[in-house]
Amino acid sequence: MFIRRASDILPSQITPETVYRQRRQILKTLGLSVAGLALSACGAEELPAQPAARPLGKFDTAEAQTSFEQASTYNNYYEFGTDKEDPAKRSKDFKPRPWRVEVSGLAERTGSFDLDEFLDPKKREERIYRMRCVEAWSMVIPWMGVPLADIIQSFKPSSKAKYVTFRTLKDPARMPGQRQPILDWPYTEGLRLDEAMNPLPLLVTGMYGRDLPNANGAPLRLIVPWKYGFKGIKGIVGMRFDERQPSTTWEGLAPDEYGFYANVNPEVDHPRWSQASERRLAAGSSLFNARIPTLPFNGYGEHVAHLYAGMDPKKLY
Amino acid sequence: MAPPAKSRARDWVPWIKLLLWPLLLFNAVRLGIAMYSVQTGSDVNALGADPIAYLTHQTGAWAAYSLGLSLAMTPMRRLTGWPQWIRFRRLFGLFAFFYASLHLATYAALDLGFDLSHLLADIIKRPYITVGFTAWLLLVPLTITSTRGMMRRLGRRWGQLHRLVYLIGVLVVLHYAWLVKADYFWPIVFGVVLAILLAMRWIPQRKRAGRSEHVA
Fold this sequence. Notes:
The structure holds two protein chains of two kinds. Chain A is α+β, with helices and mostly antiparallel strands. Chain A folds into two domains: about 45 residues, no CATH class; about 260 residues, Alpha-Beta Complex (Sulfite Oxidase, Chain A, domain 2), CATH 3.90.420. Chain A is about 15% helix and about 20% strand. Chain A contains ten helices and twelve strands. In chain A, β7 and β8 form a beta hairpin. The radius of gyration of chain A is 20 Å and the shape is globular. The two termini of chain A are about 25 Å apart. By secondary structure, chain B is an all-alpha fold. In chain B, α1 runs parallel beside α3 and α4 crosses α5. The radius of gyration of chain B is 19 Å and the shape is globular. In chain B, about 25% of the residues are buried. The chains are: A alpha+beta, B mainly alpha. At the A-B interface, α4 of A face α1, α2 and α4 of B.
């Protein structure tokens, strides 16, 4: 089992948020200068002193990142409305604390836990992952969280447990999107336990070195980078260990379009659109070159492909 | 332009048209300026987080609105009895073709980067794109035959040909509904509006002395 040591100082504390936020500006300024020339000619003194970038971790991508502005104002979170701008606009008054998570099912340690008890914030680490939406757009986001495997282990699932299922808060008073019967609330997502124990999935409480914005699923969400974004359930209030495969929200709505596995797979098109390529929404994407090929397992095949040995790849969507 | 009706005080139609032009062009100009801001980097968020999706949605929506307006002119004439409504119909129809063409161009050129094999595969394999592309294709002959000369030359057949616009309306609603994931609210609104506009063609004509009737 590979578990990265969490250092006491988070990488994002090394890189100040101001620098994070000005990344695009810095890149743009850099772009104006001829490569190799000193920056003095184009006003380097205006730039904040740039600390040494942290070394990339084993699972981090070095690709150009999506801006915080883009990543926090454009996503799907139907609990706050179906437009991609809705989550940011309509979640402003949402209070993500206090927050409790109920752990249930086939495990030794079950019950209701305060978020800080459920996930020790001191153990957070940063991971820069690609995020591929089933709608064929993608982002690159630095998340902060704790590997799901570590958290699962702390609850000691029994040997009978084969799946882990997550549940979003259901509270139409706080989540206006739930006042319409668009999805079968509460949103439910799950993983096979061996998938969940892979070192990649992260239970996330922050991004870009700050607390997770309400729009992105505050205070607790899941990130499974080799699967389509809808597997990354937000606003988690429940985690359950099951013996049988749970029925999950999108699979229940349209099983031929959104499978339980939902592995990013350029070979299997969504019945209504192609999954062979994606629009990368990130710094440096121009209006004319935004589309890039989609990779099997979203490029994480070396870490996860073995989980599906012997399975029909056509079923892995 | 035809001269104003003999005895009427003033023909307002050309003036209203003059006003409609900038209104209908507004979104294309706004999007063009925003594209420039994004490309030059003066405002990278001018088109939102997903610029190509935004351009696609905006041009598609305005194509649908223009088409809806062109389909609303006959019902308006029937409701109000004012025959002049029909003189705005071509303007709206041409703008529908204009925005539909921008919509298709955004998809083909920006989203797919002129990857024609991808475009062709999409047109054949993706029902919502098949339907949308068909709607655009059907708008082409209507646009070509929209001139006064063609109208005269085609005579009765002009009216028959231009009934294609009803089919185009249905295809447009289908195109929209087919790409929605779960929330059908707006496609349903579009569908209901279209159904009302088409149903209103059965409302008996309110006669007004004087003007003769054009093709419906």
